[in-house]
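Bench notes, afternoon.
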Amino acid sequence: MINKALLHTEVQDFIKNFEGDLSKLAFSGSPFPKVAIQELLQQIESRRKIKKKLPTWFAASNILFPPKLNLEQTSSETTAQYKANLVDGETLADITGGFGVDGFFFSEKFSAVHHFEINPTLSQIAQHNFKVLNKPNVHCSAEDGLSKVLNNKYSVIYADPSRRHDSKGKVFFLNDCQPNIPEHISEILENSQLFLLKTSPMLDISVGLQELRNVMEIHVVAVENEVKELLWLLKNGTENPLQVKTVNFTKSRIEQFNFHWNETAETTYSAPQKYLYEPNAAILKSGAFHLLSNQLKLNKLHKNTHLYTSETLINFPGRRFRIEDVVPYTKSEMRAALTFKKANITTRNFPETVAKLRKKWKIADGGAVYLFFITNLEGKKEMLVCSKVF
């Protein structure tokens, strides 16, 4: 149950303004007789954790926070907004409601959102926050969402299964998650026009396709070049080719690259030319290495070296570099070329780690030089000395 004393003005002010050492606060105890020190620590620690991830919740007054463990799997505002733009309709059932970030953004696309959360305290926290954030069309129920939706019809059913199993710890296969979506996929699809599933970025796409059926779209979502979510759109009777959409949100732009799952393409190869291209993390996760070469008319450096090159500069969903020098990976050539003490190092299809290379060649991290250690088309090792193109 929620301790209403947490909402008293002086307690809320203390939570929002506290910037000291939490361990010292834990020893000194709570300054409020009706609020336990554990409750106070939970609010401060969890609020700090979501500062960048959930700015709306961080900035609002009278928000209540669950333990930080409940926030680990929570969507960021960026990814929640993205998935809300994939669907719309009259009713949406979120069967794994959690803290309610996804439900908040879904409420802007649906007449009614049903937030099911089996943890009664977490459900109560979400309900309180929806009221504070003025989302009257979100209805919270502290119930098993899966069993509830199997007896009702919805425009969209959404699920974000827990990747923590009671006996197995942290898991990545869908059959090990809670609830077990593959086991109930037929009933879910029968009770919704569309099913949206969020899974771990660690899930292998091929494995997911083996566990699911009627998948029409897969979205690989990255933020600042880190894959955060895999989103699966499923629909009964879908006959169109499976589409994969990759997106990477950076501070300055949104990078997108789309393709069909079974699409094949011829890849062209060459030695390093004037410009070098490094695909973003979403594309690397999708495995669209040959299609990228084909669609953007770029040459690949090697079958297993996922870097691309061209003589003229193009727009690209990832980082772009100008190649200043190509250095054979031999002692004499390397010693002659290493005229700088700092550089950013990346390896692609190369036998040595970044840490080993730094130690071996005494290269500190940082600066304006970018080094790519690669295997070239002839199977030989090279160092590409580059400058970044913005």
